[in-house]
Amino acid sequence: MTSSYTSRFETLRPKLIAFSLLQVQDREHAEDLVQDALIAALENIDKYEGSAQFDTWVYGILRHKLIDYIRRTKRERERFVSDDHEIDIDSLFDNREHWDADSKPEQWKSPEDLHLRSDFWEVFDLCMLHLPSNTARVFALRELMDLETEEICECLDISEQNCWTILHRARLKLRGCIEKGWFLKGSPV
């Protein structure tokens, strides 16, 4: 292995651990899963074709490790809906069910342009880390790890309606956080 891959692994490791901690609250387990993913990447470095970014390829390996871990440990799960983080969704709309002027989403820039901006993803990561852990877990399983709703519900022992409610709350909170941390600060795109 060349030194360029060694430095890439070292740079990527803290991000992989942060991502793992969204799914696995125990830091030791998260670090073990990251270590397993890095070992698998190292052992299969000759299979890396470069069709995806290197970081994306390693995240994909970790994603599979996390899904396997979640499936193995689904009996040790907890309930995920808490009224402590209830959002008054009705307050975002007027009596005709249109956006309230103060709650209306800000105009966002082109997603393609934003994707190219690593600053955006840093803000996104910070926003994810500030979500309640159960909300972040469900959102990451659905949107970042591409699990189907049915599988999420089965793994976490939650109802489909509960899952959709959690996802809705996560999206609202992420939208608000990203608007404050990125869009409203006038970040250049």
Automatic annotation (TrEMBL):
Keywords assigned by UniProt, alphabetized: DNA-binding, Sigma factor, Transcription, Transcription regulation
Superkingdom, natural source: Bacteria
Keyword Transcription among record annotations: yes
SUPFAM superfamilies cross-referenced by the UniProt entry: Sigma2 domain of RNA polymerase sigma factors, Sigma3 and sigma4 domains of RNA polymerase sigma factors
All residue ranges annotated as the RNA polymerase sigma factor 70 region 4 type domain in the record: 124-174
Listed GO MF terms: DNA binding; sigma factor activity
Biological process according to GO: DNA-templated transcription initiation
Annotated ranges, domain RNA polymerase sigma-70 region: 9-75
KW Transcription (keyword) present: yes
Family per similarity comment: Belongs to the sigma-70 factor family. ECF subfamily.
Alphabetized NCBIfam families for the sequence: Sig70_famx1 (TIGR02943), sigma70-ECF (TIGR02937)
Name of the protein in its database record: Sigma-70 family RNA polymerase sigma factor
Organism per entry: Neptunomonas concharum
